[in-house]
Design brief:
Length: 139
Amino acid sequence: MNGHEGRECGYHGGDAEGHHCEHQHRNHPPRGWVGIIFLRLLDEKPMHGYQLMEELNRRGLAQPEKVEPGAVYTVLRRMEHRGLLTSEWQEKETGPDRRVYTLTEEGRAHLKAGLESMKTRRAVLDDLTAYYDAHYKNQ
């Protein structure tokens, strides 16, 4: 299982609560942020899974070759099961129909709480960075 036994992440099937594997993903969102990033993008507008992956890549939130489509859809299904998203099939004249995901009010509340948590984390990181700069940077 490549060191992922019993743990999942947003690129190998994690969920919106930040359950993840313990390895680091270079050039990926920090651990536990994948679900919040998905909610944030879907708060802007409803999207289908491939469109969501394109937005991740366009905004530099992930390396295109590292985003596993199956994992993205797993995260979306789990978020929908938890009531954070709804989905409906969008019929297309050409090509396959697509499942479009929309944020629910519960999803917005989860997003807001996640963003507030990120702001708190940022304040802690800013404080630690300032301490490093003042005491260790030039050593």
